[in-house]
């Protein structure tokens, strides 16, 4: 068996080991999809003496050759030797060609994986720059809108549908089990893309809260946001739920999280089945290539998102609920507010995409998706009422100043005109 097929079998075996030990949703499925997509099917090689690899039978010439081998040598010593028919000494045998193709395909797969990891690191570094220089960026609304839209597209198509790096609440349960079990941490490196993404999410959750992932890096959330924007351009209505109903529905995701967590303690396979409440596997990992009822469920949630902005994220996402707990210990609080926010100004509260701004003006950090729309309004002297009032006062003061200067200029010119007359 060639090295490529050995590597493929080892990869699948390791992924099954991680799935059985950690219970991570669709880990082996994702790994098999990536392995299958990265290399074409290999042709079967000629079987070697003493072994019938892949069910092929021995050729007559090989059998005769086996009979001529002395017993002292042992037939097993010929295992792995590539036999060639007479007259073909100048051409490599099929096993040799198969090994060459397998080696080259393995190299191509490795290079492709390294390229994807490099592009993902570049994308995450770019997002980190957006977070660090957010005040500079939001002062330029058009540039910020292009940056955000482009990054949402990057998240959906590259991280989601191409890289299959969609996180799940089961990953959180798996991580918790690894902390209190003998699971080897090297197992998480089987899927370096998810490991890299999870590391960045853990880093940003502790610094800025869960909104960085929910608002920028979740493929399904980004898909909902893009569809909602498309609906606005098509003239579809936008529905905002009453504040009391919104608060009650926001508790649903925590109830779902508690239920899944309790079920995972009893039976992780049962929790995996119940976690189909998450449409991530259908809409992102499998790209809607599933049974019709899974597809109908995911499309129904996306359809609701056309009218209610990010409906699933706000009311049903157990992963988002799980990320709120470490978010309570975040270090930075860079979302600026004014003393007029909420009292009496409600502009940012009406514009917030997930109703994360309370009527009193405070931002509910546990519900905020860090879209930075409120920061764009905060610095806009044509949208933020306190800034609008300040701008108008300055314009009136400037107008009065110009009028006084013009009057003085006219008075200075008047005596000269009389003397010339």
Give a description of the structure:
By secondary structure, the chain is an all-alpha fold. Helices cover 64% and strands 0% of the residues. The protein has 20 helices and no strands. Helix 12 crosses helix 17 (318-327). The longest helix is centred in the N-terminal third of the chain and has 39 residues, at 94-132. It is elongated. 30% of the residues are buried.
Can you give keywords for this protein?
0% strand, elongated, mainly alpha, 421 residues
Per-chain topology:
Blueprint: H1 3-22, H2 27-38, H3 60-67, H4 94-132, H5 134-138, H6 141-162, H7 169-179, H8 192-208, H9 211-217, H10 219-233, H11 243-250, H12 252-266, H13 268-274, H14 280-285, H15 292-307, H16 311-315, H17 318-327, H18 347-351, H19 373-379, H20 385-420
Helix pairs in contact: 1-2, 1-4, 4-8, 6-10, 10-15, 12-13, 12-17
């Amino acid at each position: 068996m060639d090295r490529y097929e050995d590597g493929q079998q080892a990869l699948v075996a390791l992924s099954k080991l991680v799935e059985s030990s950690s219970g991570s949703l669709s880990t082996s499925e994702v790994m098999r999809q990536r392995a299958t997509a990265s290399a074409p099917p290999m042709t079967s090689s000629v079987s070697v003496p003493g072994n019938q690899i892949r069910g092929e039978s021995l050729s007559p010439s090989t059998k005769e050759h086996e009979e001529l081998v002395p017993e002292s040598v042992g037939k097993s010593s010929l295992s792995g030797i590539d036999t060639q028919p007479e007259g073909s000494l100048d051409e490599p045998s099929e096993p040799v060609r198969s090994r060459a193709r397998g080696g080259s395909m393995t190299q191509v797969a490795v290079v492709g994986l390294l390229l994807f990891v490099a592009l993902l690191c570049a994308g995450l570094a770019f997002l980190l720059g957006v977070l660090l220089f957010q005040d500079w960026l939001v002062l330029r609304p058009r540039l910020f809108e292009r940056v955000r839209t482009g990054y949402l597209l990057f998240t959906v198509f590259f991280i989601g549908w191409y890289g299959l790096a969609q996180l799940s609440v089961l990953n959180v349960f798996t991580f918790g089990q690894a902390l209190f079990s003998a699971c080897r941490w090297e197992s998480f490196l089987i899927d370096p893309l998810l490991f890299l993404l999870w590391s960045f999410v853990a880093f940003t959750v502790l610094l800025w809260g869960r909104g960085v992932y929910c608002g920028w890096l979740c493929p399904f959330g980004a898909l909902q946001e893009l569809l909602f924007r498309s609906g606005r351009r098509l003239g579809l209505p936008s529905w905002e739920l009453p504040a009391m109903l919104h608060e009650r529905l926001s508790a649903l995701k925590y109830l779902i999280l508690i239920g899944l967590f309790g079920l995972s303690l009893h039976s992780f396979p049962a929790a995996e089945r119940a976690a189909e409440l998450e449409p991530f596997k259908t809409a992102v990992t499998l790209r809607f290539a599933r049974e019709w009822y899974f597809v109908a469920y995911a499309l129904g949630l996306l359809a609701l998102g056309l009218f209610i902005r990010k409906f699933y994220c706000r009311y049903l996402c157990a992963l988002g609920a799980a990320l709120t707990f470490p978010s309570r210990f975040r270090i930075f609080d860079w979302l600026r507010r004014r003393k007029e926010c909420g009292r009496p100004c409600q502009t940012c509260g009406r514009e917030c995409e997930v109703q994360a701004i309370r009527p009193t003006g405070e931002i509910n950090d546990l519900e905020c998706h860090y879209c930075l729309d409120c920061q764009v309004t905060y610095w806009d002297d044509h949208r933020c009422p306190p800034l609008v009032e300040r701008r108008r006062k300055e314009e009136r003061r400037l107008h009065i100043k110009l009028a006084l200067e013009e009057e003085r200029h006219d008075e200075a010119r008047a005596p000269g005109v009389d003397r010339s007359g």
